[in-house]
Known about the structure:
Layout: H1 13-16, H2 21-38, H3 51-61, E1 69-79, E2 86-95, E3 99-105, E4 111-118, E5 121-126, E6 131-136, H4 143-146, H5 152-159, E7 170-176, E8 181-187, E9 193-199, E10 205-211, E11 217-229, E12 232-242, E13 247-257
Amino acid sequence: MIAVFPCIRHRSFGDRFPSYLSGWSAFFLILVVWLPTGCTRFSHPEIQRDLAAEQMVAGLRQANADLTRFKCVGKITMSSSEQPAQSFRAAMAGQLPDRLRIDMFAPFGGSAGTVSSDGKHLFLVMHPSREYYKRRFGSGSLRRMIQINITVGDLLELLVGRIPMDEEFSARLTSDDTKAQTQLVLVDQWGRTRQRVTVDDTMHPVASEWFDSHQKPVYSLTVTGTQTVDGFVLPKRIDLSGASGERVSVTLDRYEANARFNENLFIPPPPSS
């Protein structure tokens, strides 16, 4: 007897998969070829380096590099589109990178309020209502206190005569022909302008504007006058303006560079009952 076995057919690749999948194979092949070039459409634009601008940034960041602590007496004026201007005599102290205290005094005597940071918490003390607020430092934004979204670190930089500049941005130089001034423009990885710094003919900053990722103004700075204290060149007055009309002006009168003070200075106690 001869055993009869059914004929077993060896199927090819095409037999195992329906014919319509061959179209997908072509699609994937095209996709693989397209991806290396297609991804370039979503990559960051190449930003040419401006060595002169980078050198200026380095110089501005090194301004008053040895000044890390200070005390000063001055005047603070705050206003907004909804509130008239209020002016206070103020005593200020700071230690970089994140310790700051500003005591404001009422025009007719007595304390009006205190804004402070010890690097871990932000404090706001209101007089004569005896209100006392303490919250975690977080980003260090002073927006709730002075209505402008500037951080403690950035304000300290301004008070020691430096312009805050993000290290991640690229720099390029332009000129303002109408004012015969040089402008330093900082752009992000997508080429969007995020800050514009204006310097005078002595290369000292006189103004700066900051922009968000949509290139809308966040706040601006104007520096008026200079003074030299112990070899450090410092502003006489700084004016900060918010996008919605908020304004804070700080005049620096009696300035003590690298002053000594007790670390507890930056932790104001609650008002006594």
